[in-house]
Amino acid sequence: AKHIGARTIGTASPGKHDRLRAHGLDVAIDYRRADWPEEVMKATDSMGVDLITDPLGSKSWKAGYNLLRHCGRLGMFGASEMSSSGPFAKLGMVKTALQMPFYHPIKLLDKNRSVFGLNLGHLWHEGARMNSWMQEILKGYEQGWVRPHVDKVFTFSQAAEAHRYMEERKNFGKVILTP
Q1: d(CA 95, CA 40)
Q2: What is the pLDDT of residues 114-152, one digit of tens each?
Q3: Coil, helix or strand for 70?
Q4: Pairwise CA distance, residues 83 & 121, whole Å
Q5: What is the CA radius of gyration of the chain?
């Protein structure tokens, strides 16, 4: 985003704000505050945003859609709200699924907005497309504008610990599993 000149706004817990700014984030907002959408609108002079990438799920998709400016896009690439454990996990998944928003085509047209989803697991048949994307990412890495941050490395035998680490939101950056 910064490579193409975008102003970036992100949500994270306050403990990660300074590190995110050091990595180029312009505006850091605490997602746990009820008024985080108001903070986004304040940061954009009430204009809204052009693009939201959201891995969370139903509640944040609804809020994100309402933050889009004309011709804005909401990209959904996960539903981590649905991943939980414990005795009531399945009930929570059903509740989250029932709360997912429905985007009616007429309303999308009227608001000049778009919504899209991305599941890389369903793109195996798109090898040429995936390769072209990967080449751009590698070019960005070589040029220095793609700078992945590895937070922690776990062995395969520590996979459960790695998942717990991420579920507890301790990671800042990527968590890597190695043989």
Answers
A1: 27
A2: 999 998 889 999 999 999 999 999 999 999 999 899 999
A3: strand
A4: 17
A5: 18
